[in-house]
Amino acid sequence: GQQVMQIPQYQHVQEGEDFTTYCNSSTTLSNIQWYKQRPGGHPVFLIQLVKSGEVKKQKRLTFQFGEAKKNSSLHITATQTTDVGTYFCAGLAGTASKLTFGTGTRLQVTL
Amino acid sequence: NAGVTQTPKFQVLKTGQSMTLQCAQDMNHEYMSWYRQDPGMGLRLIHYSVGAGITDQGEVPNGYNVSRSTTEDFPLRLLSAAPSQTSVYFCASMSLLWEQYFGPGTRLTVT
Predict the structure, then answer these.
(1) What mean pLDDT, rounded, does chain A reach?
(2) B50 touches chain A (CB under 8 A)
(3) B98 with A1: Cβ contact below 8 A
(4) What pLDDT does residue B24 have?
(5) What are the counts of helices (DSSP H) followed by strands (DSSP E) for chain A?
(6) Comparing C-alpha atoms, which of B45, B48, B107, B31 is closest to residue A4?
(7) A7: how many CB neighbours lie within 10 A of its CB?
(8) CA A28 vs CA A96, B100, B102: distances in Å
(9) Residue A95 has pLDDT above 70, yes or no
(10) Beta carbons of B47 and B55 less than 8 angstroms apart
(11) Chain B residues closer than 8 Å to A48 by CB
(12) What is the pLDDT of residue A16?
């Protein structure tokens, strides 16, 4: 079945440093989504990418979808303590109705 | 507009007991799903529904039943609870743009 892997599993940065998490799918995706989950909270939808090579920005967050539509990345510039949480990618393959979530990257930011 | 609601927030069951986790959404979304989240495992899809009267299995359906009699409600039934079902359960609904909205979760412990 479809597998979605994320690296790293955990990253600890100092406030102001940049952060990147990578998502890789075993199959070609029709779209990819990113979610953020704060400690003790529920996943919150951030963004969806659909087109090959697509790049979208939300303030300090930059999302990319690979040319082959099998990988994606989330980059945070100048992290803040409010960025703490776990970031998940989730992919939809072909005409399937099922989203497959990656294992997540937990981000810790300290002053 | 409450979004996605789940009850109960916490539940402790003994092995062999059955129970129903409730989920409701007021956004008129056709697509709803149930996930379980275990440490280090990300979110795994249990069951999903693309509309009233239609349900299908996800990645980890064993031990769980669902039904979808209305657009709003999507309950998850544990038939005979086992310690391996100790987890956090999230219900979600998805818009036509494939944006998924999660409920606050139910933390279930089976002893």
Answers:
(1) 94
(2) yes
(3) no
(4) 98
(5) 0, 11
(6) B45
(7) 13
(8) 12, 20, 25
(9) no
(10) yes
(11) 97-99
(12) 98
Q: Is the pLDDT score of B72 beyond 90?
A: yes
What does the pLDDT read at residue A96? 64
* Nearest neighbour of A31 by CB, restricted to B35, B43, B98: B98
Query: What is the C-alpha separation between A73 and A64, in angstroms, rounded?
Result: 5
Six token digits for residue A101: 């979530």
Both tokens assigned to A56: 């979208």
Element at A97 (helix H, strand E): none
Average pLDDT over residues A66-74: 97
Written as one letter, the residue type at A74 is L
The residue behind tokens 């529920």 is A42
Contact A97 B50 (CB under 8 A): yes
Which pLDDT value is given to residue B30? 95
Count of H-run helices and E-run strands, chain B: 0, 11
